[in-house]
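We modelled the chain as a single entity of 592 amino acids. Its sequence is:
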Amino acid sequence: MKKRIYKYWLLLLLTGLLTACDDYLDKTESADLTEKDVFGTYEDFQGFVDQMYGYVIPYFQKSITGSLNYGDHVINNRGFSPSGAFDGGNYWYVWSNTLHNILYKLDNGTEKGLWSESWYGIRAANVALSHMDDLVSATQEEKDLLKGQAHFFRAYFHWELIRFWGGLPYIDRAFKPSDNMQMPRLSYRETTERLIADLDTAAMLLPEDWDRTSFGQLISTETQSSTVGRATKGAALGIKAKALMYAASPLMNDDNGYQYNTVLCERTAEAAWNVIELADKGIYKLLPWSSYSDNFHKNDGSVPWTDEVIWEAINPGVGNSRMNNFHGRIFNPGRFGGNAVMEAPTQNIVDLFEMANGYPIEHPSSGYDPNDPWTGRDPRFYNAILLDGTKWILKNNNAAAYIQTYIGGQDRGNDASRTGYMIKKYWPIGVNKVDKNWNQFRFQAPHLRLADIYLIYAEAVNEVYGPNEAPTFNGKTGMTATEAVNIIRNRANMPSLTAEFSGSKDALREKIRNERAIEFCFEGHRWFDLRRWHIAHLPEYKPLYGLEFDKNHTYFKKVWIQDRVFDERNYWLPLPVNQTQLYEGFGQNTGW
């Protein structure tokens, strides 16, 4: 194992990926290695490929106050936080404040943000593909695994980049110093088509389940390790479905009046259906409601990877007694062990949760009582949002053991919640500085889970076929858009949609968008959804609200806190200035 590590670091030097560090080069047994030595066997080649997993950004654990909760569903109590800065609309501040964000974080050799990590990953994928002929000691299965992973990561990292910054050059080779690197930016659609081709290749080469490969059986037997988190056929098809859904969305079709591209929607539906078929085979499954929270946190030392998760950044060490550095600087007030840098749910997102009977709170049949606003809501409401009066310290029974987000309470104000709510989705009871049940605590936001695939399918099918017509794939009838939405609702013990909400394409579109807002709240989806639907600039998505109430809940008052700044230029992030000055064809995004 040590020899393999030395080879790995030497190869980083040889391919120009990182600056050499003496700590990695002081081993004489590595001094005479060549690239062919490193790429000659499957084990060593896989060691090189493994670095690409490290370039996948964990959305809530890369920076001490960093997350992707940039939408109207949260408000931060610190302006230097990414979500706080995004509300101000000044993306240049986000670019310059590299300490607290996961996007442009400076490359200091160990800590890099999504911009630089993605290009590192693309470079590594291209280097791997350029050395496939050097692999002389490997079975066909092993060659397929290596090639499949490289194609997957090349596509994945390009997709991560374009959904923030728009169309970019598609880098499909490992550049040499003599190569012409002045590649023009492609359109969003053009970049997407290139990465889809890579994902199609990856899907053909990657296994449905790594444990069924010879390599998976070997490492499970010899090292007691796991194949959890490796790129699979399902991950390739799932990212393909999501990438196509983005490309089919209104923002990316401005030349068509910001309407859905129905041709791309058809392709999206088929890609999503292919993943659903894998679920039907038992590769994936929606967790039952009783264990739904396992998708987001566990307190037994294990990684929160479940049968529902299709893709996420695996970082098992994060979360181990790290309340103050990660979870505690996003979700927790100081008195529970956090650092008083806190994202709080807005009343905006609270109002989107339906009543348990399936009606929106504003519907005359909902039974909603504004004087008792938290009773009888969608079960996902209680899973996602921590409410005033909830007992949250196990050891004590005094008033301090309960959440206090009322006006004047310990958990309300500029050092805690500004809205009257806290995020519960990643925070189990007992994980605090009093109970100290955090040594085995792990939390994670899945990058892609099966629930997303069902709602991607529903959105795409609805735009092409309407709510109640099922498409056919390879002679097999799929499900309707309404049926796909109901699968997600029913898992949470919510009733199926009535004809009132699924009787027309427009009605179901709004219901799908609402369903995405609540199912994926605080998982880093909302900002992307508001953008791709081209609605983030509309007036109704700019004001952020909270709720005022007293200790005894004798009154509840919805209050305005601040407005978000979101203009047309905010649909895309500005490119790093030094990148736009490299050559004329690599221009800056409009408005920046």
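As a brief sanity check on the tokenised model: Residues 1-31 have pLDDT under 50 and may be disordered. Residues 263-318+442-523 form a domain with the Serine Threonine Protein Phosphatase 5, Tetratricopeptide repeat fold (CATH 1.25.40.390).
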